[in-house]
Amino acid sequence: MAAIFTCCLGCCGDGGPGHAPLKEMPTVQLDTHHMGTDVVIVKSGRRICGTGGCLANAPLHQNKSYFEFKIQSTGVWGIGVATQKLNLNQVPLGRDSHSLVLRHDGSIYHNNEEKNRLPANSLPQEGDIVGMTYDHVELNLYLNGKNMHCPASGIRGTVFPIVYVDDSAIIDCQFSDFYHTPPEGFEKILFEQQIF
């Protein structure tokens, strides 16, 4: 019996010869390598303040992605999806073909064109949670778990979640452990290794 116990410890317990440690999957968070020069990222890559934009560190490769943003402090802000080609120092975003964003005033912009708008009585306020779904065609918005029924589309290429702030805005990003249940068929952002 002692021999079996020793064998089990030798093979499994101490990482001896032949043991391959499991590789921990990276965490989706704001990417300090893809942010504006006056942006500050805190709270383990989940909070943005300062002035400018920041991309998440994971592209939206999967078919149906969901992520959330919490408005911690109002000001000028925008959230959505963007390619790595955009200028992260130029706010507001949505001025070119590289970003599709909901702005703090409820407008959704892409290529300097208003694509849609939240209902006037549904503008996000301090403490609100804005959820987003993206399926490589449409970006859809949810305010505190409720579908706002204002889809927007037009962006092409590999996109990442984007957030920008200015004028004292503070935004928290939730890429997992959501405040609200994602709509059916949508899930948290997966790194490419997790998809295959």
Explain what this protein looks like in three dimensions:
Strands 1, 2, 3, 4, 5, 6, 7, 8, 9, 10, 11, 12, 13 and 14 form a 14-stranded antiparallel β-sheet that branches. The protein has about 200 residues and is mainly β. The longest helix is centred in the N-terminal third of the chain and has 12 residues, at about 1-15. The chain is globular and about 65 Å long. It contains 2 helices and 14 strands; from the N terminus they run αββββββββββββββα.
Show the helix and strand layout.
Elements: H1 2-13, E1 30-35, E2 38-42, E3 47-56, E4 65-73, E5 76-82, E6 99-103, E7 107-110, E8 113-117, E9 129-134, E10 138-143, E11 146-147, E12 152-153, E13 160-166, E14 170-174, H2 192-195
Antiparallel strand pairs: 1-3, 2-3, 3-13, 3-14, 4-9, 4-14, 5-6, 5-13, 6-7, 7-8, 9-10, 10-11, 10-12
Primary descriptors:
8% helix, mainly beta, 2 helices, 196 residues, 14-stranded antiparallel beta sheet, 40% strand, single chain, globular
The number of helical runs is 2
- The tally of beta strands, per DSSP, is 14
User: Which spans of ≥5 residues are poorly predicted at pLDDT below 50?
Assistant: 1-13
How widely separated are the two ends? 41 Å
The fraction of residues assigned to DSSP E strands is: 35-45%
Largest sheet: 14 strands, antiparallel
Give average pLDDT, whole number. Answer: 90
Which shape, going by the Cα principal axes? globular
The helix content is: under 10%
Radius of gyration: 20 Å
Q: Based on helices, strands and strand pairing, what is the structural class?
A: mainly beta
Order of helices and strands: HEEEEEEEEEEEEEEH
